[in-house]
Write a structure and sequence with these properties.
The protein is an alpha+beta fold. It has helices at about 20-25, 65-70, 70-75, 75-85, 110-115, 145-150, 155-160, 210-215, 220-225, 235-240; strands spanning about 5, 35-40, 90-95, 105, 125-130, 130-135, 160-165, 170-175, 180-185, 190-195, 200, 250, 260-265, 270, 275-280, 285-290, 290-295, 300-305, 310-315, 320-325. The protein has two domains: about 5-240, Jelly Rolls (Sandwich); about 250-325, Jelly Rolls (Sandwich). The strands form five sheets. It has a six-stranded antiparallel β-sheet, with no helix packed on it. Strands 2-3-10-5-8 form a five-stranded antiparallel β-sheet, with no helix packed on it. The chain has a four-stranded antiparallel β-sheet with strand order 14-19-16-17, with no helix packed on it. A hairpin with a 2-residue loop joins strand 16 (about 285-290) and strand 17. The longest helix has 10 residues, at about 145-150. This is Phosphohexomutase. Keywords: Kinase, Metal-binding, Transferase, Zinc.
């Protein structure tokens, strides 16, 4: 099997606006206002809208079906022994044309108990364009207080109780499931996630969505808000969520390993064999594996099957983000 270069896969009519940055990164002329996310090598569908969000391969079939048909070739024997045919990873490009609403994602126990799913939605951001973000509460927030904010759409109160971080291009941040957050306008990030589309909206006023009806995963807010981490996080706690900065290569977020792995590399080098999603964030060159050589440039996205073997990157100016599932336990 060989690596596959993937075109953009941007679900339409999302409830928040995107900008021109995904199009600019990929070098395409067209863009749509409400297509802020590019779901890369996705086997995950938009919540309640299957098959929207699934990656379609050049042969017309979905990546999900291809992996189901031959999981060992795509994911490797060790991965299949640990996780079955589940890639255990979703990668997105996210272009925030406006500040995203304050929201949170359930963790694994909550998703299992209430939705019958194997994954929650811990995520991470590798920042390509600077962003101001809001992340976690600065103090303990009572259940009734949070429910009141949501019912009243008290955005100022919510944001006023959250940490504000100014992220630079190159920064990496882990966002544990449950932690309330909002990505600021102008951000462009490579986003790694557990492979679900589960969001609990704490804010929706001014966005193109009926959050009172659609913001609680069909569970009702009395249940859904129990998934939100209402603890006060100290500045030191939040700082520990930050991993690499722009000057760092290698493993950007070691603390994310139970959920996914993310590396950044510059220049020519070899990558270990294994299922991977490669995002070229700068430069140009070639990516070779499985007897095939692909020309790649800034904005290219490539899915690499495990059976393609080691990957050779060639290009002095290449800079890539390599996204992988969690490593099977040894």
């Amino acid at each position: 099997m060989r690596p596959v270069a993937l075109p953009a896969n941007q679900p339409a009519d999302r409830f928040y606006a995107g900008g021109r940055q995904i199009a600019a990164l990929r070098g395409t002329a067209t863009w749509a206002t409400h297509e802020p996310e590019d779901w890369v090598a996705s086997t995950t569908a938009v919540f309640g809208q299957d098959p929207v969000g699934l990656t379609v391969l050049p042969d017309g079939g979905t990546l999900r079906d291809a992996i189901e048909a031959d999981p060992v070739a795509w994911l490797g024997a060790d991965h299949v022994a640990a996780f079955g045919s589940d890639p255990a990873l979703l990668v997105k490009l996210l272009d925030a044309g406006q500040r995203l609403p304050v929201h949170a994602h359930p963790d694994v126990p909550f998703a299992a108990a209430h939705l019958g799913l194997a994954h929650g939605k811990t995520e991470a951001w590798v920042v390509l364009e600077p962003a101001r973000v809001h992340l976690g509460f600065t103090r303990d927030v009572g259940a009734d207080e949070l429910a009141g904010w949501v019912a009243d759409q008290a955005t100022d109160a919510m944001l006023g109780a959250m940490h504000t971080l100014d992220l630079a291009a190159g920064d990496a941040v882990l966002v544990p499931a449950g932690l309330p957050h909002a990505i600021g306008e102008g951000a462009l990030v490579v986003e790694l996630q557990e492979p679900t589309d589960l969001s609990i909206l704490l804010e929706w006023d001014g966005f193109a969505i009926d959050g009172a009806a659609a913001g609680h995963l069909g569970l009702g807010f009395d249940v859904a808000l129990a998934a939100v981490d209402r603890r006060g996080w100290s500045p030191e706690d939040v700082a520990r969520l930050r991993g690499a900065t722009a000057s760092d290569d290698g493993d950007l977020l070691p603390g994310a390993a139970p959920f996914f792995r993310v590396e950044r590399w510059a220049g020519s080098r070899a990558l270990d064999a294994g299922f991977a999603v490669v995002v070229v964030v700068d430069g140009s060159g070639t990516l070779a594996a499985g007897g095939a050589e692909l020309p790649v440039r800034r904005g290219a996205t490539v899915v690499v099957p495990a059976s393609a073997g080691p990957v050779a990157l060639d290009g002095a100016e290449l800079r890539v983000v390599v996204c992988r599932p969690p490593a099977p336990a040894t």
